[in-house]
Structure formats: structure tokens, C-alpha cells
Design brief:
4-stranded antiparallel beta sheet; two-stranded antiparallel ribbon; elongated
């Protein structure tokens, strides 16, 4: 599942239900289980109900686990170091600053190249579509068509288009008026210098397209608010991933693909 669509479906998961009282919360935050435990503690063993026994055992187990956690040394879930947690991990904050800078630079390059190559909003382009297979020539027929790129930016554009994990890669889909499906990013950047610095590597289907011909360049102005805006994806990965995964799935790609290209443009 790409990062940018993680909030658009629940992956089949149902809402939370307490296994003790069947309320719409988890058992760890259930108010009734503590009440049953207190009531059971006041009664002789033989007079307690099954639910009171269960509640007492659960509360005791939870208390013992909490005491063990307090007694053990803190270990950071991000860098695996001891003596601190994610909340005050200096390495995580360094990576946050780095990712925020990389996202701003990525968006600046996207803004520049989208106008140049014809995938900015309101660009008028000519694109050679692959049509049906021609058995006489033994090749696919091709037809040039004119498209106006949609006026809205693709959802949640971010530097995570460079992610190496296919299931988490930011998917860039570019809407076009008169086309029954959006363009993929690579269809409009084939064999250009920005293809990998903006879209990363990996396998993708190539139907022999040769990019788009820009008929009328867009005059769309990307706002500073969008370029420098907050990226929710960064907060998400720093909360959920550890440093090893961050390095493997995004930081290495930024260092290898984005920074050298941005440096040539004077943006890093």
C-alpha cells in the first residue's frame, strides 16, 4: 500500500471492540474491568463470578507488566539505543530535518520540471498513445492525441516517490482531460534527466512511449505554501519505522538520486 493512500482504506479491519464488555474501545482502556476487579477483591474466592476472576487476573497481570517496564532501562524504538525513547532521540530529529529539507527540494524540482516537460496543471501536450495490435505490420499502431493536464495537483506529492519499497512508494498519477485514465509519472518523463531523481528506480511497464510534446506551457504557479508545506508522510514513517528501514527505503535513495541532481541545479 502506497503511503499516500494509507488513509483511504482500512485494509478490511473492523472498528475496535473490547473483549471484556464489548464496548467500542480496547480492553486496556476498559473502565468496567477495573470495577469488576475491585468488586471481586472484596468477596471470598468461592463467591466471585467468572468475570470478576478474569478482571482480577487481567488487572494483576497488567500491573506486573507495567512494573517490569519501569524497572527495565529505556530503549529507543527508532535507533535502538538505550537511555532514551523516540520522543527525545537526537538521530530521529536529524533524520526529520533531513527529510523535510529533501521534501522541499524535491517539490521545487517537481515544480520546475513539470512546467518544462508538460505535466504541470493546465499544460497542453501532444502524446503518442499505443493503440491496438496490427497483425499486418506485426507492431502496435500508435496515434497522437492532444491532452490538457488537469487543474489539480496529484494527491500528496512528496519525496516518498523515491521510496524503494514498492508497497510504500508514493504513486504519482497525473490527470488529463479527455483521457480515461491518468498518466503515470514515467509516461511523461521517459528518458529525461529528472526521471530517476524525481521518481526513483524499480521495474515499470513501458509501452514504448517517448514522453510528451509540450504544445503550450503551463503558467501555473506552485505556491511557497505547497513547496515548504508540512509533509504528513514524514511524521508517519518516523512514528512507525526504525532507522534501519528509513535508511533502506528512503534515505539511501535520496542521497543516491536526489542530492546529486539537486546539487547540479543549485538547490542543495
Amino acid at each position: 500500500m502506497a503511503i499516500n493512500i494509507r488513509t483511504e482504506n482500512t485494509n478490511g479491519r473492523s472498528s475496535t471492540t473490547c473483549t471484556f464488555c464489548r464496548g467500542t474501545h480496547s480492553i486496556s482502556s476498559c473502565p468496567k474491568i477495573n470495577e469488576y476487579a475491585i468488586e471481586g477483591a472484596k468477596l471470598p474466592f468461592s463467591e466471585r463470578t467468572f468475570r470478576q476472576h478474569y478482571a482480577m487476573q487481567y488487572v494483576e497481570l497488567k500491573s506486573n507488566r507495567s512494573a517490569k517496564r519501569k524497572a527495565s532501562a529505556k530503549k529507543c524504538g527508532y535507533c535502538k539505543g538505550s537511555g532514551h525513547s523516540r520522543r527525545n532521540c537526537t538521530l530521529m530529529e536529524e533524520h526529520r530535518e533531513f527529510l523535510n529539507k529533501a521534501n522541499r527540494v524535491w517539490r521545487k524540482i517537481y515544480a520546475i520540471k513539470s512546467v518544462e516537460l508538460g505535466f504541470a496543471p493546465a499544460s497542453l501536450i501532444k502524446y503518442e498513445e499505443q493503440m491496438g495490435y496490427n497483425y499486418g505490420s506485426g507492431t502496435y499502431d500508435r496515434e497522437e492525441k492532444m491532452y490538457l493536464i488537469g487543474s489539480e495537483l496529484p494527491t500528496n506529492l512528496s519525496v516518498f516517490a523515491l521510496a524503494t519499497d514498492h508497497n510504500l512508494k508514493q504513486v504519482i498519477k497525473i490527470p488529463a482531460v479527455g483521457r480515461n485514465r491518468p498518466f503515470s509519472f514515467r509516461q511523461l518523463t521517459t528518458d529525461t534527466d529528472c526521471e530517476k531523481p524525481l521518481g526513483g528506480g524499480g521495474y515499470y511497464y513501458n509501452d514504448g512511449n517517448r514522453g510528451a510534446k509540450v504544445i503550450t506551457k503551463s503558467t501555473y504557479q506552485y505556491s511557497d505554501e505547497w513547496i515548504n508545506g508540512h509533509c504528513d508522510d514524514i511524521d508517519f514513517v518516523l512514528k512507525k519505522w526504525d532507522k534501519d528501514r528509513i535508511e533502506r527505503d528512503i534515505l539511501n535513495s535520496i542521497r543516491k538520486r536526489l542530492i546529486p541532481y539537486a546539487s547540479q541545479m543549485g538547490l542543495w
